[in-house]
Structures are given as structure tokens and as C-alpha cells.
Amino acid sequence: MFDDDAWRLVAVRHYHRKNWQLYRKEVIELDGGVCTRCKRGPSEGAVLQVHHKQYIAGRLPWEYPYDLCETLCKGCHAEEHSIVAPSSGWECFGYDDLGDLSGECELCGNSIRYVFFVQHENWPPLEVGEICCDNLTESSVASDYVDSILAHKSRLQRFIKSPRWKTGDDGIFRIRQKRIDLAVEPVDNGYRLSANRIQGKRFFSSAVEVKKHVFELLESGKLEEYLKNTQGHALPKRKGRANS
């Protein structure tokens, strides 16, 4: 979906990091929780953002002294830059999962978990949420991605909790999936995966971790490919008939 050149562009942006989120909260608190220009806060419907009054080469956004930053509402922030972001003509070139609602959409100011990187020929790249990404790109690229992530997580949970997992007196969890006999075996170092009686080399801290691991292998098709190659080479060759 996204190429390596695009990810190199993403690497130079830092505003979705937790360090920035913490610094941003500190600046807004020091400014009294309101825009320093219009004096409006969230209770008046203002979306607060932190504006750098000047930029210092090589310094990360959260490494600035407080006096070089100020709290502005979205409207005052746009006025400060004397321009408003175009509403169409954007392309999505990357994404990131922050793991929680620690990000902030640079367009609407809402808290976001899934960050989408969008670019425009007449505007610097932005980090936005799912809805804003779809609106800017006039597509469903972000919502489709989020739907696929949620569907993947749902399948994972159903696999982990499937009643088809059977536990024997030996403490081994067994299931047959995609015509593969899977076993989660307790060992001295934790747990280990076995597929068609071929024991894996990795050790996991819990049976659930093994189930997560094998689910990803099944989803990607890597386990089937591995067994095909391994078991195929292990089969004895048939002896051909001698010529009469």
C-alpha cells in the first residue's frame, strides 16, 4: 500500500509521539487551557493546538523552551500561518498504530490512535485520523484499513478462544486448523509450538502467546509454506523400476 520512500518521509515527523503529547499538555496547561489569542477554550468549542513561534534546526518539537511555544485554537493557528489547508487533492502515503488514543489529528484536533500521513502538492504533510483522512483523500482508504485491523483482531480472539482447542492430561493444547495438526506444548522454558509433529525452536511465556504467533503464521500462509517445504524434503524418494 505504501512504498519505502513514503516511510522515509514519515520518519522525519514526530508529532504523534508520546513525548510530544506530554509536552503539548504542559504548554496548554501553562497557558491556562485557552487560546492565547482569542482566549477561548474547549468549553467554548475551541480545538487547542500548540504553535512553535520559531523553529530550531535539529531540535525535536518537545525540546523547545516554553516561551517559544504558545497555545492557539485551530482557527487562530491557521490565521497565524496565513493559510488554510486545501480540502481536496490529498493522498495517503503511510500510517501508524499508536496503541492508544495518544495522537492528535492535525486537522480537527481530536484524539486518535490510528495516524494516517497525507500529502498535498501545495501543503506540508499532515498527520490525521481516519475520518479526516477519508475526507481529504475523498476515499475510504483509512476506514478500510481500520476495518481490516478490527476484523483481524476479531479473528485472532475467536481463534484463541475457540472451543476446538482441546487440552489433554499432558497439558498440551491441540487443534486442527487448515488441515494442520497444531499443538501448544508446555516445556521447561515456557511453551512451544508444534505443527504436524515438527517442533518449533522459539519459546513463549504463555500458551496465549503461542496461539497469537501461530495465528499470524496461518494468516500470512508462512506456516503452510514452511511445512510444504520441510515435509516435502523429508519424504523418501520412490525407487523407479529398473529397465528390462
In words, what does this structure look like?
A five-stranded antiparallel sheet has the order 8-9-10-11-12, with helices on one face. It contains seven helices and twelve strands. The chain is elongated and about 70 Å long. Helix 4 runs antiparallel to helix 5 (141-160). The model is unreliable at 1-12 and 233-244 (pLDDT under 50). By secondary structure, the chain is an alpha+beta fold.
Q: Uncertain runs with pLDDT below 50, 5 residues or more?
A: 1-12, 233-244
Order of helices and strands: HHEEHEEEEEHHEEEEEHH
Strand order of the largest sheet: 8-9-10-11-12
Largest sheet: 5 strands, antiparallel
Number of strands: 12
Over the alpha carbons, how many angstroms does the gyration radius reach? 26 Å
Strand content: 15-25%
Q: Given the helix and strand composition, which structural class is it? A: alpha+beta
**Which descriptor suits the 3D outline?**
elongated
Span of the ends, CA to CA? 59 Å
Q: Helix count?
A: 7
Helical fraction equals 25-40%
Summarize the structure.
By secondary structure, the chain is α+β, with helices and mostly antiparallel strands. It has 7 helices and 12 strands.
